[in-house]
Amino acid sequence: MKRPSALQIIVVGVVLFIVAYLVRSTEWGEIEVPTPLRGAAATNPFYAAQKLVETLGATSERRESLGDTPSDAVVVLST
């Protein structure tokens, strides 16, 4: 049986040192990944605002032009 050479012992020692350093300095944590939007929320940028308005008891509608807008209406414009 052949004895390991000094170079082999040094290489194994360096590899063990690197592995020990990585184990000690690595931190595993959990992150929350938000789920993608689905349904109407994925296609309508005002979905959350419309749901809030409806929850508060008001009505909302989405229009492409202002047209005949009542004088007491609240208008949200987006470009």
At a glance:
The protein is mostly helical and 79 residues long. It has three helices and no strands.
Described by strand count, sense and barrel closure, the largest sheet is: none
Oligomeric state of the chains?
single chain
Note the run of SSEs as H and E: HHH
Average pLDDT figure: 89
State the end-to-end distance.
80 Å
Number of helices: 3
User: What share of the residues does DSSP label as strand, in percent?
Assistant: under 5%
The secondary structure category is mainly alpha
- Total beta-strand segments: 0
| Coarse morphology | rod-shaped
What gyration radius follows from the Cα positions, in whole Å? 32 Å
Parts with pLDDT < 50 across at least 5 consecutive residues: none
Question: How does this model look, in words?
Answer:
It is a single chain. By secondary structure, the protein is mostly helical. It is built from three helices and no strands. The protein has helices spanning about 5-25, 40-45, 45-55. The protein is rod-shaped.
